[in-house]
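Fig. S4 source data, part A: sequence.
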Amino acid sequence: MNIKNEAHKMKLASPKMAASSEETRNEALAKIAKALQEKSKEIFLANEKDLNRAKEDGISDAVYKRLKFDEGKLSSVIEGLEQLQGLKDPVGVVQFTRQLDDGLILKRISCPIGVIGVIFEARPDALVQISSLCIKSGNCAILKGGKETAETNRCLFSIIKEAAVSAGLPGECLLQAEAHSEIDELLSCHKDVDLLIPRGSNAFVSYIMNNTKIPVMGHADGICHVYVDKDCDFEKAIPIVVDAKTQYTAACNAVETLLVHESIANEFLPKVAEALHNAKVSIYGEGKAKELSNACPLTEDGYHKEYLDLKLSVKIVSSVEEAVEHINEYGSHHTDSILTENSETAEYFMQMVDSAGVYQNASTRFADGFRYGFGAEVGISTGKIHARGPVGLEGLMTYKYKLYGSGQIVADYASGKSSFHFKDL
């Protein structure tokens, strides 16, 4: 397959996709949900092939969990598809209307970005989430999943594409790239691909950013923190810490470093360490934090480490200010949480921590498009331009200006014959 030629076809078809009705796009989502349920056995068989190959390759438990597509994940993506259908159409929203002069009206209207290339890690459910979000938002999408789930991705894509086209969407709405060599082809399509969203390791995302002229949106690392303040409620704090680390260790929003205020360290650290050890979490620290939590010595990469495993770094800090400084220095600007009953301390933390998500008394695992009510997410952005945090429908939109005139020319305004009378309508 020639990615450049296919991307160009998608670019030409993208206005048709953007002009598709909300009813057509919602029908496509409904048909996709129904088809996924009806062909679940076919999907699970494909996934079993991928899992067997992964076992032979000796992958870690964390990666294995990402690869697996079972009844639970199927139910989750179907629920996401149903949630997306109920969300307000993001296309064609009038963001403002301004009268420039009598008979000269300016409107700013939301519209899809166009053609989006998404290169994602070995998570089959991500393929469903990404394609469904692009459909709902009126975007065409080129999807490149990880080779570890090639069979599952191929099966899912075939089902999704067939259902989408049967609902009346253009045949060019979705394209699957499978070969690794096609990534570099995709990176060269700067005239036809409007945005790239890479999901993977720091090295991979950096490679994408350094080898394309296409705008890139995404995040490399997920070094998330939980800071346990001196005014925390122990009964709330310990389950939150355990959940943030163990609920799904391979996720980018799992906590990697625990910060504890020095005034409660003697009492809190042994208790939280016991709970973590019971959950089979290995703790790493230095000095007093190491002693109180019965931890292993901190690894060479220390607080820069994204474990994506049942491992956690621990550090004692003297104040919320030091906690904030540590997070802004070592964090990845993804999601960080403070556990405290002091509202002033919480507001200081949430104002000063420079991350896409800042929480009080909640697990970092809530950083997710589905849990935010977005239906799903195409990824999480830690940048500050355009979209930030879980990228749902809104993050896949841009806008255009529409000017409705009645014969006006700029020369009349330059000469003073006419003048602007700005008024928001």
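Fig. S4 source data, part B ends here. The mean pLDDT is 93.
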